[in-house]
Automatic annotation (TrEMBL), chain A:
Record InterPro entries: AAA+_ATPase, ABC_transporter-like_ATP-bd, ABC_transporter-like_CS, DrrA1/2-like_C, P-loop_NTPase
GO molecular function terms noted in the UniProt entry: ATP binding; ATP hydrolysis activity
Chain coiled-coil ranges: none
Origin superkingdom: Bacteria
Designated name of the protein: ABC transporter ATP-binding protein
The ABC transporter domain, residue ranges: 3-228
Family in the record: Belongs to the ABC transporter superfamily.
Keywords attached to this entry: ATP-binding, Nucleotide-binding, Transport
SMART domains attached to this UniProt entry: AAA
Automatic annotation (TrEMBL), chain B:
The organism of origin for this protein: Ureibacillus sinduriensis BLB-1 = JCM 15800
Signal peptide range in chain numbering: none
Gene Ontology MF terms in the entry: ABC-type transporter activity
Protein's recorded name: Membrane protein
UniProtKB keywords: Membrane, Transmembrane, Transmembrane helix
Length: 301, 262
């Protein structure tokens, strides 16, 4: 499986929502598309699902235009639509048949997939009676039913309460082993939890395409964080004069110290502190959380 | 076309569950028997109400031929209240799928727009045809027992002509339902346009050939006069062209992917 997004652009009333977007994906990957609201995530996902036509560029799956590859795509919209008068089982039968799955295969697949998303107890209930979390899980079930080679999900957990969110995240963790997943979210913890690769979008442009570890490694400056038992102003002044210290930020009893070379300088700083008999509560290497990195990336530009 | 048949099945289940398959025929049965019964009992009603002081009612003078009464079932019942009811029943045919995202969702599957429309039109048209036919047949039975006999062949020709006009009605409402977002607007435009067409038939016979509603007038004429004007064949032909044009516009409109509203 190979998904290629080439120079895709889309504008609504002269406002560029997606701007020359390029990306590639291969089998087994799980890619999180992250960005603030209005970054163009949904529009991009809808273009991959072939709901919206791009103004420019093309989206190609396994060498064929996406329009002719609908069988290979499982799509979960942000608000999955169902017929309220159908039962969960009927919904999957209907959706499965639309995707050209044989009836005999469906009778085997449906109970299996309902068990996987935890809805087997509700298979004969009307969809109209389902909660948001249940609908989302049914949405995942329909997206996986025809064994697509690529599953795309638009904000799969954003509209759910913490319990529903947890349920859905666990299911995605589970299905990730078998399929290739592309999903959008503005909640970073979710993306961090599920996927290895991130594509960061802002105002229709691709800002970053990287892995979790790379992102954290690259964006980090060498910083030490200290917490002192008392506000030792004398020592702080000494630290400021040290040759390898670039900057010191004081926040009450907490210090953030930027040094030239973390691995060498941390020992020097620690021994310096012991020399001056400083009462240290905590001494650690400080790393930005993904959220801080994301905020820096998205807000700064 | 496999998807089309699947969608037809789905529509039937839906129409059975929301009881449209029950109420639509009932409404047309009521419309169908109204005209013969009212016409038959009108003299009695007028007499009983006593508003006829100084008016002599000669029941034999106003007795109508069966064919005329059956023709006015089409003209006065089906083409007035009937159109409104059909439009109201059909106004959500695409709009409801569009507004809740189901249309976009279905089209992410390997389903072509034409098979989607095929499924919608065939299933809904079948139910409408059944309703109109049953209603008209009930009217036919009443007319035969209360007035003079109408030959069954006249009934059948009139019905077929009328059903073609109804197909135009279905296709037009389908198109409007695909284009507009609000059910109220859809109903308003469809009702005004369709009843407008029907009214124009009486005033501007010159454009009969291109007026889709003229088939309804010709159906009435077959019943009232018993003659079949051969020029109707051209009108039937034009009607089919109209219907094809409406389907193509609907298909094209949906293919523009204006189905997404977020």
């Amino acid at each position: 499986m190979k998904l290629e997004i080439k120079n895709v652009a889309k504008a609504y009333k002269n406002k560029k929502v997606v701007n020359n977007f390029n990306m590639e994906m291969r089998t087994g990957e799980c890619v999180g598309l992250i960005g603030p609201n209005g970054a163009g995530k949904s529009t991009l996902i809808k273009m991959i699902a072939d709901i919206i036509k791009p103004d420019n560029g093309e989206i190609i799956l396994n060498g064929t235009k996406i329009t002719n590859m609908k069988k290979e795509i499982g799509y979960l919209p942000q608000y999955p639509a169902f017929y309220n008068w159908m039962t969960a089982k009927e919904t999957l039968e209907f959706m499965g048949q639309l995707s050209c799955v044989k009836k005999a295969e469906l009778t085997l697949r449906i109970p299996e997939i309902l068990r996987k998303v935890g809805l087997h107890g509700a298979q004969n209930d009307k969809v109209g009676t389902f909660s948001g979390g249940m609908k989302q899980r049914l949405g995942i079930a329909q997206a996986l039913l025809h064994k697509p080679s690529l599953v795309i999900m638009d904000e799969p957990v954003s509209a759910l309460d913490p319990i529903g969110r947890r349920e859905v995240l666990n299911i995605i963790q589970d299905i990730k082993k078998e399929t290739t997943i592309l999903f959008s979210t503005h909640i970073l913890n979710d993306a961090e939890e599920i996927c290895e690769r991130f594509v960061v979008m802002k105002e229709g442009l691709k800002l970053e395409d990287t892995t979790t570890s790379q992102l954290i490694y690259r964006q980090n400056e060498d910083r030490l964080s200290l917490e002192l038992a008392t506000n030792d102003l004398v020592w702080i002044d000494i630290v400021k004069t040290l040759p390898y210290v670039k900057e010191v930020k004081v926040m009450g009893k907490r210090l953030e110290i930027m040094v030239e070379n973390l691995s060498n300088n941390k020992k020097q700083l620690l021994s310096n502190a012991i020399e001056h008999n400083v009462d240290i509560m905590r001494f650690e290497i400080r790393r930005d959380t993904l959220e801080e990195i994301f905020l820096k990336m998205v807000v700064s530009e | 076309m496999n998807a089309g048949i699947l969608l037809i099945k789905k529509e039937f289940v839906q129409m059975a569950r929301d009881l449209r398959m029950v109420w639509l025929p009932i409404v047309f049965i009521l419309l169908g028997c109204t005209q013969p019964i009212i016409t038959y009992y009108l003299p009695t009603i007028l007499e009983a109400l006593g508003g006829g002081q100084g008016i002599t009612i000669d029941s034999s003078a106003i007795s109508q031929e069966g064919g005329e009464v059956l023709a006015s079932t089409l003209g006065s019942q089906f083409d007035q209240l009937g159109i409104i009811i059909l439009v109201v029943a059909l106004m959500g045919i695409i709009q409801s799928d569009k507004s809740n995202g189901m249309l976009a969702f279905i089209l992410t599957r390997p389903v072509s727009i034409s098979s989607y429309l095929f499924g919608k039109v065939v299933s809904n048209y079948i139910v409408v045809v059944l309703s109109v036919t049953i209603g008209f047949f009930v009217s036919y039975l009443y007319v035969n027992s209360l007035f003079t006999m109408v030959p069954f062949s006249h009934f059948l020709i009139a019905l077929l002509l009328y059903l073609l006009w109804v197909l135009f009605l279905v296709a037009f409402t389908l198109m409007i339902s695909a284009i507009f977002r609000s059910q109220g607007i859809i109903a308003l435009i469809s009702i005004i346009f369709l009843t407008g067409c029907r009214i124009i038939v009486n005033f501007i016979p010159a454009i009969d050939v291109i007026n889709p509603a003229s088939l309804s007038k010709h159906a009435s004429e077959v019943l009232a006069t018993g003659t079949f004007n051969t020029s109707v064949i051209i009108i039937v032909f034009v009607e089919f062209i109209w219907i094809l044009v409406l389907f193509s516009i609907t298909n094209y409109w949906i293919s523009l992917k204006k189905i997404d509203y977020d």
